[in-house]
Automatic annotation (TrEMBL):
It comes from the Bacteria. Residues 155-347 form the CheB-type methylesterase domain. One of its GO terms (biological process) is chemotaxis. It comes from Parahaliea mediterranea. It is found in: Cytoplasm. Involved in chemotaxis. Part of a chemotaxis signal transduction system that modulates chemotaxis in response to various stimuli. Catalyzes the demethylation of specific methylglutamate residues introduced into the chemoreceptors (methyl-accepting chemotaxis proteins or MCP) by CheR. Also mediates the irreversible deamidation of specific glutamine residues to glutamic acid. This is Protein-glutamate methylesterase/protein-glutamine glutaminase.
Length: 353
């Protein structure tokens, strides 16, 4: 991004939402709304006219559904798109589909009757627009992927753990990492920046796609091989021990690095409780969450991996981890799953010697 303002086009059939988004975005000196549109057909012409840096897009609109428009847009003219979503079960499923189609991220629609606290909400939208403007837009996932080849699982003890963290772009990156893993892979704990109400749909979606079982983590449950546990939105996920077993702990403490769940919180607990029995992986995302935690995992003897810049939708978190010395290896997204299995096997072999 250069010093010029980020140019935003807002598409929503609600005049109130369009006005509110204009007000929120124009509060920030580094961005501006260049135009608004009440439906995708109007937006199509405005995109040609204004060539915006970022598009904010509602889903339910007249004349053309937002997902249909997004799919066509990402096929013909990929650009950073930020979805504006309602916090409902149906809304979360549609939002996940939009991320699959190539949207960078999403924000929840603000509460229309409440303007107190809007500055905090405004800052969140601004951060996501900045991240979107610096992202690498991608075409629809369905066009660019082949059926995954399932990786052979190493023969290791149930002590081995895979600890993953992600933010912007992470929903699709996690799919790429988890989908080829075998049903008897080591247990996996995941912190993905996502608000409450969306993580359950996200876990269910991954569970349908993967050989392993994927679920929202529950406080106190035992961590088992062949399972992935996703931090519920609005709760920190920590690794803990109960006797000889690993268990999940949920914590509603304050946000860390502006996030709850925080990747740093999960990584730090893995460093403390599992040490060299864990493998840390930091994927795409804006900001710095997870960078210090990955370094602490490395210092505790764990192999650590960061996603490379070329395949990261937003390179902020991996870049910070690399700069701090937390990443032993930097890999393209497609190489991370097989490399994790190799690292698990190498780690187990080293500890048997």
């Amino acid at each position: 991004m250069n010093s010029a303002k980020v140019r935003v086009l807002c598409v929503d059939d609600s005049a109130l939402i369009r006005d509110l988004m204009r007000e929120i975005i124009n509060e920030h000196d580094d961005m501006e709304v260049v135009a608004t549109a009440q439906d995708p057909l109007v937006a199509r012409d405005l995109i040609k006219q204004y060539n915006p840096d970022v598009l904010t897009l509602d889903v339910e609109m007249p004349r053309m559904d937002g997902l249909d428009f997004l799919e066509r847009l990402m096929r013909l003219r990929p650009m950073p798109v930020l979805m504006v979503s309602s916090l409902t079960q149906a809304g979360s499923e549609v939002t996940l589909r939009a991320l699959e189609l190539g949207a960078v991220d999403f924000v929840e629609k603000p509460s229309l009757g409440i303007r107190n606290g809007m500055l905090e909400y405004s800052d969140l939208i601004a951060r996501k627009i900045r991240a979107a403007a610096s992202s690498r837009p991608q075409r629809a996932a369905a066009e660019r992927r082949d059926p995954p080849r399932v990786i052979r699982a190493p023969m290791v003890s149930s002590e081995k753990l895979l600890i993953l963290g992600a933010s912007t772009g992470g929903t699709e990156a996690l799919r790429v990492v988890l989908e080829p893993l075998p049903a008897n892979a080591p247990a996996i704990l995941i912190a993905q920046h996502m608000p409450g109400g969306f993580t359950r749909s996200f876990a269910q979606r991954l569970d349908r796609l993967c050989q392993i079982s994927v679920k929202e983590a529950e406080d106190g449950e035992r961590i088992l091989p062949g399972h992935a546990y996703i931090a519920p939105g609005d709760s920190h996920l920590l690794l803990a021990r109960s006797g000889a077993n690993y268990v999940a702990r949920l914590d509603n403490g304050p946000p860390v690095n502006r996030h709850r769940p925080s990747v740093d919180v999960l990584f730090r607990s893995a460093a403390e409780q599992a040490g060299r029995n864990a493998i840390g992986v930091l994927l795409t995302g804006m900001g710095k969450d997870g960078a210090q935690g990955l370094l602490e995992m490395r210092q505790a003897g764990a192999p650590t991996v960061a996603q490379d810049e070329e395949t990261s939708l937003v390179f902020g978190m991996p870049r910070e981890a690399i700069a701090r010395g937390g990443a032993v290896e930097v890999l393209p997204l497609g190489q991370i799953a097989p490399r994790m299995m190799v690292l698990v096997e190498e780690s187990g072999r080293a500890q048997r010697v």
